[in-house]
Design a protein that fits this description.
Blueprint: E1 5-10, E2 15-22, E3 26-34, H1 36-40, H2 47-69, E4 78-84, H3 88-105, E5 108-113, H4 114-125, E6 133-138, E7 143-150, E8 153-159, H5 165-175, H6 182-190, H7 215-230, H8 237-263, E9 267-271, H9 278-291, E10 294-296, H10 300-303, H11 308-320
Parallel strand pairs: 1-4, 4-5, 6-9, 9-10
Antiparallel strand pairs: 1-2, 2-3, 6-7, 7-8
Helix pairs in contact: 2-3, 4-11, 5-6, 5-7, 5-8, 6-8, 8-9
Bound molecules: 5'-O-[(R)-(carboxyoxy)(hydroxy)phosphoryl]adenosine and zinc ion.
Length: 336
């Protein structure tokens, strides 16, 4: 069979990324231009600034991805792009670029769901992994427990009622003065703190045992900080970070592994930016070993936003016959 080479583009938030993926699982290049420095001073992603930077960088990032892979535009089979969910301006830059390349080269155009991409990141480093399995997707915008029934076929069994896990990390980091982006900073600082120092709440949702809620935890952290301030007590940043992080991880682990057991699977995967958290990875590793569940976790670079995961997801869409027309549009709230 002829090789299928996908040029993939990802620009849904603040990473301008391009990748060339061969036959779904072999990453020939994975170029990521992170805009984090640009947004840090505003304490979060500014959509308009992100859009402008994507426009400025996207051609260069794509050229680098093709160059590193030593693949020409003529050699690619299809061009894939994230068309949602995400920020509409940033998404439009990637979608327009992909359409232009498809039009100019005559290659097929494949639109990809960003979360399907995150889940598919697991296929890159585990050649033996095949559906079905259960995946926890924890990113800045989503906290989903998903049954991966087949390639590109998902059933969401749990979701967040309010904040996403990554959002909680970012908000708590800001509150304790760590700045943006919060996840990696809390991850690092937690190593020096006591995770049992402060008993933050672990929310349970009565109607659906697999759903999450992180806004109560966020409020509990804010209340704790306020009460310390009123009493004139100094806070230990590392203890707050570690205790908060433990509360998030406990809930993610408990709900996920309960689902794995109830649904009768023996394979469990994690995905999304929060999945790069070192303590979370250790906790899942430990608990999966205990329960004899096979645990799949992409390398951190494939957890946070990248285009290789989009290329992998696109491969399976392409194989199914999915082709998009030039009317493909950015869909900020695209459903899985
Ligand atoms: O998947 P992602 O790169 O973008 C979205 O699709 O949202 O996820 C970004 C989120 C941010 O909220 C960031 O704070 C969080 O992932 N994150 C982390 C870590 N690295 C990134 N959260 C906890 N620990 C980390 N090491
Ligand atoms: Zn993402």
């Amino acid at each position: 069979m002829e090789d299928i080479l996908i040029l993939a583009i990802e620009s849904s938030c603040d990473e301008t990324a391009a990748s060339v993926v061969k036959n779904g699982r072999e990453v020939l290049s994975n170029v990521i231009f992170s805009q984090i420095d640009l947004h840090t001073r505003y304490g979060g992603v500014v959509p308009e600034i992100a859009s402008r930077k994507h426009i400025e960088k996207i051609n260069q990032v794509i050229e680098e991805a093709l160059g590193q892979a030593a693949v020409s535009l003529e050699e690619i089979t299809a061009v894939a792009v994230t068309y949602g969910p995400g920020l509409v301006g940033p998404l439009l830059v990637g979608v327009s670029e992909a359409k232009a390349i498809s039009f100019a080269t005559g290659k097929s155009l494949v639109g990809v769901h960003h979360i399907s991409g995150h889940i598919s990141a697991n296929y890159i480093e585990y050649p033996e992994l095949e559906p079905p399995f259960i995946c926890l997707v924890a990113s800045g915008g989503h906290s989903h427990l998903v049954v991966v029934k087949d390639y590109g076929e998902y059933e969401i069994i749990g979701r967040t009622r309010d904040d996403a896990a990554g959002e909680a990390f970012d908000k708590v980091a800001r509150a304790i003065g760590l700045g943006y982006p919060g996840g990696p900073k809390i991850d690092k600082l937690s190593r020096e703190g006591n995770p049992d120092a402060i008993p933050f709440p672990r929310a349970k949702i009565a109607e659906n045992e697999y759903d999450f809620s992180f806004s109560g935890l966020k409020s509990a952290v804010l209340n704790y900080l306020n009460s310390c301030q009123m009493k004139g007590e100094e806070i230990c940043q590392a203890d707050v970070a570690a205790s908060f992080q433990k509360a998030v991880i406990d809930v993610l682990v408990e709900h996920s592994l309960h689902a794995v057991k109830e649904f009768g699977y023996d394979k469990f995967a994690i995905a999304g930016g929060v999945a790069s958290n070192s303590s979370l990875r250790e906790a899942f590793q430990r608990e999966c070993e205990k329960r004899k569940i096979r645990f799949y976790h992409p390398s951190p670079v494939y957890c946070t936003d990248n285009a290789a995961m989009i290329g992998t997801a696109a491969y399976y869409e392409y194989r199914k016959g999915v082709r998009h027309g030039y009317d493909l549009n950015a869909v900020p709230n695209l459903q899985l």
